[in-house]
Specification:
The chain is an alpha+beta fold. The chain has a single domain, classed as Alpha-Beta Plaits, CATH 3.30.70. Helices cover 28% and strands 24% of the residues. The chain is built from 4 helices and 5 strands. A hairpin with a 6-residue loop joins strand 4 and strand 5. Helix 2 packs across helix 3. It starts with 9 loop residues before the first strand and ends in a 10-residue tail after the last helix. 30% of the residues are buried.
Length: 185
């Protein structure tokens, strides 16, 4: 864990955003308050606030700090709901992880509450938009900068490495002691 004791105590703020992509009918139900589980945005707001305060319990090596305030706001569009989390503190380390955690858990809560209406929802674009305070000063994301895979340097073909075994050969299932089990089935 990084030693933050020599750092100066300053006012710090972070803003993170994420989106839950959904069918237009689903966003209309949320806007009308017609989701069967209840008030989606009220529950997601509380979940986001709770998550910001629990970030060090979820993320290894994330410093516990006194969260001074958390604001969770939403923007409803036809094909998505955008979550914005703003977290502030006066401390020796920033609140970026708290803001990102708050936005993510609020988005997960929207998904959970709406899944009976729309199983095709996608959570994405979880991004730090602004950070102030501390030695590194101010960071503001360029709103014209693309999000997602398009923003990554190099070529990304959508393939992920599993981390199981040292190689990615066709006998990867043998490394797991599974014999002839087809992991791709």
């Amino acid at each position: 864990m990084v030693d933050v004791t020599p750092k100066e105590v300053t006012h710090r703020r972070a803003i993170a955003r994420g989106r839950v992509y959904m069918k237009p009918e689903t966003s209309t139900l949320v806007a009308r308050g017609a989701i069967s589980k209840g008030d989606v945005l009220a529950v997601a707001r509380v979940a986001g606030i709770q998550a910001a305060k629990r970030a060090p319990d979820l993320i290894p090596l994330c410093h516990p700090l006194l969260v001074g305030s958390v604001f969770i706001n939403f923007r409803i569009e036809d094909r998505f709901i955008e979550v914005e989390a703003q977290v502030e503190t006066v401390d020796r380390t920033g609140v970026e992880m708290e803001a990102l955690t708050a936005a993510t858990v609020a988005a997960l809560t929207i998904y959970d509450m709406c899944k009976s209406s729309d199983r095709s929802m996608v959570i994405g674009d979880i991004t730090l938009w602004e950070k102030t305070g501390g030695r590194s000063g101010v960071y503001r994301r360029d709103p014209l900068e693309p999000l997602g895979v398009e923003s990554m340097p190099g070529d990304f073909d959508g393939t992920f490495v599993s981390g199981l075994g040292d190689d990615l050969d066709d006998d990867a299932d043998d490394d797991l002691g599974l014999g002839d089990v087809d992991l791709d089935a």
